[in-house]
Amino acid sequence: MTQMRTESRPMTEEGDFLQIKAIDHVHFYVGNAKHAMHYWWKSFGFEPVGYSGLETGNREFASYVLEAGQARFVVSAAYGPTHPIAAHQMVHGDGVKVIALEVEDVEKAWKATTERGGKTAWTPREDKDDHGIYRTSAIHTYGETLHVFVDRADYKGVFAPSYKPIQKETESTGLVAIDHIVGNVQLGKMNEWVNFYHKVMGFRQLMHFDDKDISTEYSALMSKVMQNGNGRVKFPINEPAEGKRKSQIEEYLDYYLTPGAQHIAIITGDILSTVEKLRKNGVEFLRVPQSYYEVLPQRLGEIKEDYKAIQELGILADRDDEGYLLQIFTRPIQDRPTMFIEVIQRHGSQSFGKGNFKALFESIELEQERRGNL
Ligand code: FE2
After folding, report:
1. Residue 267 C-alpha to ligand 1 middle, in angstroms?
2. Which of 35, 214, 234, 345 is the S-S candidate for 271 at Cβ 3.0 to 4.6 Å?
3. pLDDT tens digits for range 279-320
4. Which of 20, 50, 11 has its CA nearest to residue 33?
5. Beta-bridge partner residues of 317
């Protein structure tokens, strides 16, 4: 059984001042939005619901909005070389630019965070069309990533002004919501960003893992999990730890070139069916050694799912005081070894699968070695 180290940091007097309702969307800047849309649609079962581009009067960039349950992804690509999306994509490759958070009041959110030291990306603004008013404000977080605060209470159109609805027949894979988004930061910077989420955003520290928990012969990392007031938004922050050879976090930083979002975990209510569909759709997952499954039943005890099916699909499992979880990690989803996706099903457990880290890291290192980056 995994021992979870839970730390409770005192909240500021104001408590949960941001009152984030949920993650509103994740915005990827990519090289080819049409291809990215196709990937999330056909491989992951996200339904394309909105489009913005030349046909909608947007002459700057092409953009698609996709949804799987409450998880909303936006993929955008520039039409020309001078647009900021093109610059971002040139430096980082495809990656997450915006982690948008739904709030009641974007003005209040911007004031509260910038008064506490957050750096403004844009001041509160209103975008209007026939469908109403879409309100946003934004601050910077790690690397070139932004947190955009969104209030869509007075906006009835699809996503935002300039987007039009689209319909495409979609085969769901059972993904329903974002569970957590992990950020990779440089060596020695984890606590700075933990403090940012605590002081500027009013998050609490849920737990931490250090290099004694998460290390193999070569790779090591440290991680702290930050969570907002209602517990719906969880942002673990990783930094590399000293190991014999290159940490997977360093490999990420070498290719993304700045800190950034490392993985997005998406919840499913039936991981066996979801992973079977994703595999059929061509999604590539990390494989752990078969020996992992020899000891799994002793480690985990009784679970609802069939151990044989779990092993066949390469799913990982972990237990803590509150229950258990099942999870699996994709290989990087673009050519650069940067971002990947986690699929997770929770049965009571609110942790992150620490018991799997060692097996998982050995698998990641094997792939790093194949890329000549270990
Ligand atoms: Fe995760």
Report:
1. 11
2. 345
3. 999 999 998 888 889 889 988 999 999 999 999 999 999 998
4. 50
5. 326
Average pLDDT of the chain?
92
Question: Which residue in the block uniquely carries the two structure tokens 């030349």?
Answer: 54
Q: Give the Å distances, CA to CA, from 251 to 185, 240, 246, 277.
A: 12, 10, 7, 30
Residues near ion ligand 1 (CB < 5 Å) are 265, 342
Written as one letter, the residue type at 309 is A
Kind and range of the H or E element at 305? none
- Would you state the structure tokens that stand for residue 16, as one six-digit string? 């949960």
Order the strands of the 175-184 sheet from edge to edge: 204-209, 221-227, 234-240, 175-184, 260-268, 340-347, 323-329, 316-320
Domain 22-165 and domain 173-371, same fold? Reply is yes
Question: Spelled out in words, what is the top-level CATH class assigned to the domain 22-165?
Answer: alpha beta
Instruction: Tell me the angle at which helices 248-256 and 357-370 cross, rounded to the nearest 10 degrees.
Output: 50
For residue 12, pLDDT over 60 is answered with no
Cα separation, 221 vs 206, whole angstroms: 17
Fold for the domain defined by 173-371: 2,3-Dihydroxybiphenyl 1,2-Dioxygenase; domain 1 (3.10.180)
What separation in Å is there between the alpha carbon of 183 and the centre of ligand 1? 10
| Contact status, residue 175 vs residue 343, Cβ threshold 8 Å | yes
144 Cα–ligand 1 center, Å: 21
141-158: per-residue pLDDT in tens? 999 999 999 999 999 999
Give me ligand 1 centre to Cα 352, in Å.
Answer: 6
Per-domain residue ranges for the chain?
A: 22-165, 173-371
Written as six digits, the tokens of 28 are: 């990827």
